Amino acid sequence: MFPSHWAGTWGSVGWAVNWNVDVAEWRSHEDTENRKTLWDVGFTPSLRVRGDTTPIGRPFADLGLGIHVLEDDHIGTKQLGLSWLFGEFGGVGLQFGAHDEFGVSVRVMHESNGSIREPNNGLTAYMLRLEYAFE
Fold first, then answer.
1. What's this model's pTM, rounded to 2 decimal places?
2. Which of 2, 7, 100, 111 would be a feasible disulfide site paired with 16, CB 3.0-4.6 Å?
């Protein structure tokens, strides 16, 4: 995650726009002769809203919408329709460290082609994330 210069506060609540660059490998556990892994590179601007600092850290919520490029348009029995997809996520977590540079969060992410082409079988992941913000 890379912070941007777009940030501010609403009373005691802080907000910031961040740039997320992700590289991931999707794995299918279906018993099929088809492709079982799929590499994914994503770029997602996101909005992070943060609460006041507590003794254990600073709570936050994230929302993001971006683009993902995959090495193919299928994995297991899922046909994705395109090898580039829209990706959105939402999550909650806690920032900590001297400059809030570390974070731990849970996130739900979904990728699909937005019904641009059929089939539009998306991919959904539930994550526990550890992060570091480059400043």
1. 0.84
2. 7
